[in-house]
Amino acid sequence: MNQSGQVEMLPEGYPTRDVKFSEHYSIFCLALQHRLPESDLGVVSRALKDSGWFPHPSLKNLEQTKRFSIFNPQADSAIFGDTPWHENQTIDQWLRQRLRTTEGSRGAIEPVVLRLEPNRRFIITDREGAKVMPFKLHWVDLWLFPEGAGVLSFKTTLVADGDSVGIDEMSAFHRQIRDTRGETIVLDEDSGERKSFWDDIIVKEALGQGQCLGLDADPSKVIEGFDPYQRNAKILIAAQVASMGEGHELAWGRPLMDPPIRLQRSHEQLVEKGQWDVTLQAARASITAGYATVRDMILFELATVSDQGGAAGWNG
User: Fold this and answer.
1) For 234, phi and psi rounded to 5 degrees?
2) Rounded to an integer, what distance in angstroms lies between the CA atom of residue 38 and that of residue 141?
3) DSSP conformation letters of 119-171
4) pLDDT digit string (tens) for 25-78?
5) pLDDT per residue over 238-282, tens digit each?
6) What distances in angstroms separate CA 298 from CA 42, 59, 149, 236, 301, one per listed residue?
7) CA 92 to CA 55: how far, in whole Å?
């Protein structure tokens, strides 16, 4: 969004011209803090139920989930836990199973893995309220680990006017949504209200103003518990190409660049002279910073919000 409050779309041009996606979705991920082990589980359970959360579907058949996991058995237990979810259990019963009490004190034995399925449509608007980008929020996942660290993920698709979505549209959409400290305003198609995406949709509605995380804080303070070293959520993109012009290889990185970098002149120099200039180097760094990896998600990003051991020292 530029200084005048308008959502900034890049001019169509090489190397992104003609790149269209017939099918696509984006998953945004970021690390956060929680306080489940020392919180009142009755309050947490009610907040989770009121917000619509339920134990993650992958826990119904836990052994099968682990069988197809990309991790080793030790990591599987650390990530998924060992207590399955039975559909006749209430979320309070399951939560207390995962956070067992021993010798009068609660020990966070297994991670709490949850899902929310809003399946709602929103429209990103500018400051004047003009409708700019319609999109759908399919689901939200929470992975809350014993050390007070967790991962929030959610899946979106951009709603196209025609049969496909352009790569520049997707790029502009990502820049609007991924900034956790930004001022992205969306129109809720269900209620007709304009809301802040992060403050209202994520923090107040999905996270129950922090109560779903065991936090009893002002909603503005909850965002401060997001990864302090990564303002932008990372993105996983799955897309099927409807059309792509010749020589547009570098276009694949455009949806992950923030701020946008125009590559026409640099790309021509690379093709004609085989020279990488500083613009292409910056583009590569920007693209790499946008990719979510297992190392990022499970190790580094969790360490930046954890309150245990070396991570506490890392956080100062």
Assistant:
1) -80, 165
2) 22
3) -EEEEEE-TT--EEEEEEEEEEEEEE-TTSEEEEEEEEEEPPSSS-EEHHHHH
4) 898 988 888 888 788 889 999 999 999 999 988 888 888 777 766 666 767 777
5) 888 766 555 555 566 666 665 666 666 776 777 777 777 777 777
6) 28, 19, 10, 15, 7
7) 10
